[in-house]
Amino acid sequence: MRNHIRTALISVLAIALLGWFLSHANIAAVWKAMRGARPELIIAALALVVVTYWWRVVRWQYLLGPLGPTRFSTALRTTIIGFAASFLLPARAGDVLRPYLLARQEGLSAMATFATIVVERVLDLIAVLALLAFFVWGSGGATLPPALLRPIQISAAVAGLAAVVLMVLMFVLASHPERVGRIVFGLNRVLPHRVAHAMAGFARTFAEGLAVARTPRPLVMALLWSFPLWIAIAFEAWLVTRAFDINMSFGGSFLLQALLVIGVAVPTPGAVGGFHEAYRVGVTTFFGASDDTAVGAAIVLHAVSFVPVAIVGSVLMAREGLSLRRLRGLAGEAHQAETLQETESDEVPILRPSGR
Fold it and tell me: pTM for the complete prediction?
């Protein structure tokens, strides 16, 4: 019942956001703008999507290194399935499914593998904020009205400080996993012993999964790979934006990208609604685009960013015997963090291994 209510609420949110997004434009004018877009730039953006997923896997393997060896083919397959699941299912289910499926295939701790996704998100935040800072405190800031520039600079500084705090917290957790477990187990004074014991095991295993935070080389390499990855993602947005003749510099795509990250955080399937509205607001507010053109470009950029991986991911799911219903079940199991280490039942489909 709780899942049905959550799904209904998320569906209402997605419909409301899409309705608000489309209310700003004339559909006939939007279709005209889409038909007039430059196809060669959109094709180039599609090619970049392939590059970004390849680089995501390269970076992820650096984060996984301290946990044990993993195959690139398995990491790539589970990454595509995970992102496809996030497109097809609500609440970014793919962020849980991706490490869960990889852990089952490679014999790793599921909770420790999930911790690498947390590190990945922090590195994403650092890279996006650094690129935003490059734009707003560099020459790009001069192109923005002072009334808009100041709030952006303050927001970027606050978010940057939060990212630093998160990195320090991860280092502390990674350095003392046993101590973290003992501290959490101390909750047995106010919680049932069994619950406290489960939470302590969860905290200890999660902290062990942050091992990369105390291992300089793989963490540095993962951070370095985050920059070409997010520059490529920004370039993808810039290509589609320019395909619609919106006058945005390449540096401006770093500002747009930060807004899109906020839009993607809305927990609708495939970031539907949140992504679209974030793009529309960004290019109309900062780069002088009309609502009709902005709506058309947002629809195309969303399709370029999400549809290819959803199609390829669906094919891989079918090959592995993973239906949407089964993915929902796996996501539910993965959310039961305290029992992740015990759910090795043969009833759950396991990805078939490919050649090493």
Answer: 0.81
